[in-house]
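idk why but the lab printer keeps eating my pages so im just putting this in chat instead. protein + alpha-L-arabinofuranose:
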Amino acid sequence: MMQHPLDKVLLIATAALIPCGICPAQEAKPAPAPQACITVDPGKPGVMVSPTLYGIFFEEINRAGDGGLYAELLQNRSFEDAPDDPRGWTLLKEGNADARIALDKSQPLNPNNPTSLRLEVLNPNNGRAGICNEGFKGRPLDYANLLAAYYEAVKKATAGLYVEAGKDYQVSFYARCGEGFKGPLTVSIEKQDGTVLASCGFTDIGGQWQKHEATLAVSGTDLNACLVVSTRQPGTIWLDMVSLFPKETYQDRANGFRPDLVRMLQAMHPSFLRFPGGCFVEGDSLEEAFRWKRTIGDVAVRPGHWCRWGYRSTDGLGFHEYLLLCEDLVAAPLFVINVGLAHRGVVPMEQIQEWVQDALDAIEYANGPTDSKWGALRAQAGHPAPFHLKTIELGNENGEDREGGFGGTSAQYQERYAAFHTAIKARYPDITLIANNRKVSPVDIVDDHCYVHNPDLLLQRVGQYDGYSRNDPKVYVGEYAVIENCGLGNLKAALAEAAYAIGLERNSDAVVMACYAPLFCRKGWDLWNPNAIVFDARRVYGTPSYHVQALFAAHRPDQLLASAVDKPGVYVLGGKDEKTGQIVLKAVNTGDTPLETTIRIQSAAKLNPKARVITLASDKATDENTLDEPAKVAPVESVCEVVAPEFQYCLKPCSLTIFRIDIAK
Ligand code: AHR
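predcted complex ->
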């Protein structure tokens, strides 16, 4: 059994329950002079911290969904991924078999799924012929604007299709055959050398499309397996929706999620989940826009669509599945809807009503009674209870007046925003609507994005909301991250993000929600760098940025306490956790040397001398985690035994330290 990276983090944490408070090298020596002083004053409570402050943002990017969280193991199951080639599938010919494959639109499975694969076995010659899929092994993407470096990264894909001995896999496919094909058609999971790990024969292939299914029990573990559909008989076979899922998905749901990736999200304690994008919602053109109605129902009739991030989205992870994910995470859904604006495309106002209706229907699908049109479909999909969708964002990064009208001009956004806002509020006055910018009105909450090109730039923005007028709209920082000069996501960037999060938290009467972006990346498909969670077919790790997000959510106080620090480069925040009564103190030391610090808790109450301390640090600020070393930069928990109204603590170089201090009873 593979050790889950989070288990490793927990192991490190429990092994590290050591007393501290002075730097180890300084034991038995007189405490060195303090270089900094942090004060927290429990007698001076500040604003309440928004309970929705820490959430997550899922976007279909970097194969976050298809090839990621969505547990389908095969790439291009419906043969729609590319117009001219059966991407992800290769022709397999063994012995002297004579065979060929081609995409075929002559007799579609259904109108939404026009392309199938035709396998013609002209002469098996005592061998076998078929098709083979290696899962989500990366391939160069045909996304015209990709930087050359990204192409290179995508070529370096890691493991493709991972199967584990003793586990069951659910294979399904639609097939029909030409006259004279006698079968059987064999579906097998094989190693690259042809060793068969599981297989099943189907003899009942007929002239009309029919679905076939089987459970395959795999006899060996393999990182680079293939799914092979083959025959030793001559004839022509058409295939579509060839799918392979592990039986073991999160909560064993059909069409479900990878459990390890769900666990990573759960450990982030998100209060909300924004989905499904990002630019993914907009699309480069309107044809690529996310239209939720095309993403529900039987996966075989979901058309899928080209995703702005360089591959086709099956939309097997569709609106219903996103809502299920919110439930799995106990996170409030935040649905981003396209308001008729693509990167390069605008729905004329005369046609906007259909798009507005989509928004109203989305709310009915999520929340409506089971005898309503859309609520009934939700019930039919197995979820009669409402999903409690209460927040919708109207568009993504629209109306910014970017060159060439990219994403819509402010005038175009204003008109469309008004149409959506009026219709939604008229029918659902309690739905909270999020605007992309402040050029529209009225605004409940505005989404500010903050990507910067090096950690120092983010540090300069820690005070961004200090002077923000409390009469202005509440803020949702929907996307933020250091995106350059940070390797593939290093500690230095994560600490800048931690300092920035302190700036958000201390202004949380204005900033009510925030999340890091992007969330996921399948190694080898990294179109965007860095990301919070990186995975391959089998493994997963959180970047240091992931840990910062998870720690801030887990240690969100309910109310601020006055706090200060007298040292530049150190960022602090004090607060109170109402449930435990603890004082929560967060301190980010961006300096690269240990920092002897006086911590002064100006409390009349007695403090418990032992406090929990959680530290995120590493040997170097440039340290990163990798698939091979997933917990190099991970939180370590310890006990500080010297807590008093005034005590000395050595903050590690380049570190985030979180103290949870009990007030003694
Ligand atoms: O997070 C990646 C992208 O950055 C999002 O799709 C978009 O909203 C932003 O520009």
